[in-house]
Structures
1.
Amino acid sequence: MAVPRNALKKWEKVHAFALELPGAVEEFPWGESVAKVNRKVFVFLGVQDGSYPLGVTVKLKDDTAHAHALACPGAEPAGYGLGKAGWVSVPLEAPGAPAAELLCDWVEESYRVIAPKRLIAELDGG
């Protein structure tokens, strides 16, 4: 199944943004792309081969951002019990899916929850 072009463009922007964050690395546990900082996942990027719908999963501690993410079309608390810890899965192919800029904001928030203070200071220009 072909991935919708606009969803793929969003995914590519979010992927590039995540890997530009200080100390971020990409790994492929379970055959899917994740971005990690300090050996901890801060965003699940899934697969882009069309075998599964394109989406991202982020950890949002801010109540407003969390509620906003869950209100997106098709969004849901992440599986495997991660939803209880604030992780939200946001599909990118649904009509009305969030813009890349908003997704990047959420990725940055997720990063800030996971990253060590010294890398957050680096991100903030300190």
2.
Amino acid sequence: MSIDSSSSSNEPVLDYPLPLPSALEPPAEWAKLRAGCPIAHVRLPSGDSAVLLTRYQDVRQVLADPRFTRQLGKEGAARISEEPGGVFESQEAASLTEGHERWRRLLAKSFTAKRVSAMQPRIEAMADQLIDEMVQQGAPADLMAALAFPLPVWVICELLGIPSIDRDKLAHWSNAMLNLSQFTRQEMEAAQAEFSAYMSMHIAAKRAAPGEDLLSELVAAVDEGHPLTELELMMIGQGILVAGHETTSNTIAKMMGMLLGDRERWELLVADPSLVRTTVEEALRFDANAGFGLPRFITEELEVAGQTLPPGTTVICSMAAANRDEQAFERADTMDLRRSPNAHLTFGAGPYSCVGQALARTELQTVLNALLRRLPTLALAVPASDLARREGLLIGGLERVPVRW
């Protein structure tokens, strides 16, 4: 689970994840590691050892190389958290990993640019409705609760073809799947059982009465003999529901924290809304609170950054640290709303990049346009340094984003 002694340095073992000085600022260690320790030894919350990559080229290489596998349930792979069974390590996750290419091809057909583009007016109407409700309730408001969380939930439920879900239940199930230190194993198992029963019910309903939606398409593919098991179908449905709202909800909140935390950024956008597209890309790149990163496991000897990693090594790819690499981005520690091109690694790299990125980009751009149009005087109701970071989960986020207008 670590580099052999011949390639090991005298660098201390760091506890990972690295602490952030505030919810929107990067750890000081990132720059030091990129400069002098591109393969750093880290200790995970489980106590197991892994190596951390922070340079752009190294992270990009690993994410695009299928030999760095997702098989975190294999013997010898580092456990991420003290309580096993999270999103990376469960038996269900192992099943999806083995059938990755099969289900990925299915989803790629469903998340086409054409389909996502057709949803944009509906997403805009949802955003306007939520902003109406927030304004009606008056300032100050929590932008996370009022807009950032519910909008992606509504969007992904509509895409899947399931009724608007109980938000508190979904948040609980989702957080349990993304657990790092917040839940016990018993709590995780109970949440997974509830979530599985919920998804099985909807799969049965789609089988009985299919509609024009993604879940119906996946059910039909299985029933037509596509090599996808019932367990994989259920896990894909759960994965889309969780990934389809969790990352986007958190990114909306963090993006608004970044933009409102520096008044010049927000005023630049109000003056020139044509910068929305490049602003969204820069918010994705500049996000210092992106969460755990992507773990990979190797079963053969491989080379990264001029060092040989032995079989049995668990590698953590920090896309957020790589996105701040001065060798890849000019003025990497500056949020430049006009930055273009912007080849950030937030959605991964190569053929294994996130299949839902077109939908996420559309939601982020639509929300930002709506807020600029409806609430140009929007401002944080607390200092940016007081924004509280979500703790104990694999994904980074903010607890609340208090705003006024």
